[in-house]
UniProtKB/TrEMBL annotation:
Molecular-function annotations in GO: ATP binding
Pfam (any one): ABC_tran
Signal peptide location: none
Keywords: ATP-binding, Nucleotide-binding, Transport
Assigned protein family: Belongs to the ABC transporter superfamily.
InterPro entries xrefs: AAA+_ATPase, ABC_transporter-like_ATP-bd, ABC_transporter-like_CS, MacB-like_ATP-bd, P-loop_NTPase
Domain of life: Bacteria
PANTHER family linked to this entry: ALPHA-D-RIBOSE 1-METHYLPHOSPHONATE 5-TRIPHOSPHATE SYNTHASE SUBUNIT PHNL (PTHR42798:SF7), LIPOPROTEIN-RELEASING SYSTEM ATP-BINDING PROTEIN LOLD (PTHR42798)
Domain ABC transporter: 3-225
Name of the protein in question: Macrolide ABC transporter ATP-binding protein
Matching SMART domains: AAA (SM00382)
Length: 225
């Protein structure tokens, strides 16, 4: 079991009256691709942020790789994420003043596990793997949405994470690019065994996952195919 959450709640707003999560229980197996499907405002992104340690639940427990995220200090969570997690976002979150290969290098630069030459080599290898090496020295504003998302995926995977959290990874893309990005995710899962948790409102994206978790009004209403 790579992720186990029990009785998660998250309250927002003045006097914490808005219940974004209402007692969520969830387990995710290593190597799974799980889609979290539901309408806007149902709590999908809040759940992802809590499970990944980007946000604190109001109550409940979260274990990732057997480690209790709720009990970790912020600096401990930052180190844990850098070692074991990758992130893919709807609007790519590339740094505009860095070119493609420099954006991909960032996680390894932060981890300080490799020298500069080795980091550049690994980044270029990932761009080649994702068939985007011809854009290695282009800047984000010079690339299409599909190209930018490939760069973001390379950045998420360069550190060989155990789990990748993807928040609407195809939400800003057209149908063709959406299909291509999902095929990349499926391929990386097959090749590397990486666990992916994908938040989406798109049933066509969700149906490519191994398992679909459906949410509504802060609760999981079904889990399965």
């Amino acid at each position: 079991m790579i992720v186990k959450a029990k009785k998660l709640t998250k309250l927002y707003g003045k006097n914490e009256k808005i219940e974004a999560l209402k007692g969520v229980d969830l387990e995710i197996e290593e190597g799974e691709i799980v889609a979290v499907l539901g309408p806007s405002g149902c709590g999908k992104t809040t759940l992802l942020n809590c499970l990944s340690g980007l946000d604190e639940p109001t109550s409940g427990s979260i274990k990732v790789l057997g480690k209790d995220l709720v009990k970790m200090k912020e600096d401990e969570k930052t180190i844990f994420r850098s070692k074991y997690m990758g992130f893919i976002f709807q609007f790519f979150n590339l740094i505009p003043v860095l070119n493609a290969v420099e954006n991909v290098e960032l996680p390894l630069l932060i981890s300080k596990k490799f020298g500069i030459r080795e980091i550049r080599k690994k980044a270029l290898e990932w761009l080649e793997r994702l068939h985007i090496s011809h854009r290695a020295y282009a800047y984000p504003n010079e690339m299409s949405g599909g190209e930018q998302q490939r760069i973001a995926i390379a950045r998420a995977l360069i550190n060989n994470p155990k789990i990748v959290w993807a928040d609407e990874p195809t939400g800003a893309l057209d149908t063709k690019n959406s299909e291509e990005i999902m095929e990349i995710i499926l391929d990386m899962n097959r090749q590397l065994g990486t666990t992916f948790v994908i938040v989406t409102h798109d049933p066509n994206v969700a149906k490519k996952a191994h398992r679909i978790i459906r949410m509504d009004s802060g609760k999981i209403v079904s889990t399965g195919g």
